[in-house]
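During the second year of the project, the team shifted from modelling isolated chains to modelling whole assemblies. The rationale, set out in the original proposal, was that interfaces cannot be judged from single-chain predictions alone. As a representative example for this report, we include one of the complexes processed in the last quarter. Its constituent sequences, exactly as entered into the pipeline, are reproduced here:
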Amino acid sequence: MRLADLIGGAIVLVLGLAVIFFSSQMQYYSEFGPGPGFLPLWIGIGITGCAVVLILNLLRKHEKVGAFLKTRTREGFKLLIIVIATFFLLPFVGFSIGFGLFAGITMRIMGRHGWVVCGLTAVGIAIGIRYVFGHWLSIPLPAGVVGW
Amino acid sequence: MGFSISLTPVNILYCLAGCFFGQIVGVLPGIGAPTAIALLLPLTFSVNPTSAIIMFAGIYYGVAYGGTITSVLINVPGESSTVMTCVDGYQMALKGRAGAALSVSVIGSWIAGTISVAILMCFAPALAKFALRFGPAEFFGLAFMSFGLLTVFGADEPMKTIISTLIGLLIATIGLDVVSGMPRFAFGVPQLLGGFDFIVVICGIFGLAEVFNSIEEPEEGHLLKKKMSLRDLFLTKAEWIASRWAILRGGIIGFLIGIIPAGGITTASFLAYLAEKRISKHPERFGTGAIEGVASPEAANNAASISGFAPLLALGIPGSPTTAVMLAGFMMWGIRPGPLLFQTKPDLVWGLISSKFIGNFILLLMNIFLIPLFVMILRVPYTILMCFIVIFAAVGAFAVNNNMFDVWMMLGFGVLGYIMKKLNYPIVPLVLALVLGNLAENSLRQALTISGGSFSIFVTRPISALFILAAILAYLSPLIRWVLKGPRRPKVDVS
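Output from the structure prediction step:
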């Protein structure tokens, strides 16, 4: 966890420095008062300063607190991959079918539910999305190649 | 005026739906009030704002009621605000007094909630009248103080709280600058010129991130199988005597904590429990099934959930993540909460406040008669629940601008929220800073323009000076604490 915290602190430090760099290219002060770069610059300085203190504190301490990767972290990654794949598919298959498939696959892979339950849930969710969001709430959801 | 609005059939229905949904959300571990409201917010574009906000308020305090059921019956808090209820509530359940624990929490919540609404009715307009004197310097001071208070109430690691706040402010600056029209941090991406929509951020950071975290650390408990009859819900005379003052004290503490920006209902319930334990003649009973240990935090969290609306409505400053999400809702409907809201939208303000009387009464009835139904909901597999959260978050993000870019951004914020939580960076400061970012920046720039660039404007105006002083003390609180008590804070033993 200490290593993860250090990496996190380093990323925050890089973010702070990047904010300082980009905001220094904006106008700091104009004739009407503070310019668009005023607050971002101070935010960048604040982030950088805090990150430095955080990293120094972490380097000073040597205690181990918890672990970044846990036994069930893999499950989270599985879901993330399924979600990313679904989002890629959505413009082609549409929201109704896309999320129907998402629910069925997720329940099968992560919940170990039976094929019949997963299939019925997938169909139910696809129909539900079409009618609740598409018709009832009038959200113009992408229909995809199937047109549904 | 308020009751003529909140008692219309449509608004009663919205209030009922909000309370019912809030109760369900409270029962389900891993999904909280901000997540629920964030996921539903985009679906209320076409709903009357008064009805929608009545429903969301119902969800907010419904969650506080619902979380108690799991705290008492399975020793798993459905909501962070009911963590303290687990301590004595579950012990009471093990002793066969689950009914009494649930009963005292419902009655306590109802009494404290009702008193809280009555005080809110007097207090909020007075606060709004006072806030009419506020200029840009005062509003900046108030926002600055709110960020500072997060450091006090925030977490064990103040530096991470400040970083989280600054990242929230940074996200708020993305897009076209309102004064100069210059793009900031858009990097030539046209979708970023309008900045990140708040709904996209909260759907990711509350909805999706919560799913990833819940998969990794599932909150499991064992439901007590003992059957409960209506008679079990009645308190004995001794239990009632023991809990009546605890309810009142908890209600007062909750109300006071709720009105402090960044106070929140979780802090209120913690402080109420600790206060009750401290003044008790038998503190050793706490943790073994003391009814005061259930009554006080429950009264406090409900009172705080109601008084938290005072800074939101009167000042436009949210006191908790849930009211921050509601502030986003107000903005979505084109309403700016603040001192003028009581004059420009009296129907909304009084309709909302009076609906809390009705909501509390609905929840009282629901909790007496529908507990078996809510217990049944606990058996819904989490896989199904998480599918629904992902779908609602994605559709909600898409509905903002009808484009897939927002859906991908929502996923990005989900991953950010997940990593932040894993590394102990609190999410709430980011959300509050994001929602208050524009107010803070605009007020700062206006104030400095008025003063010709001199920062003295913030200390020469008394109210602003008071806010700035409070903020500085709040930011320095970890250092003050370190000087007074040594580098490590004493941990509260609630085991």
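The longest strand of chain A covers residues 29-30. Chain A touches chain B through 61 residues (CB under 8 Å).
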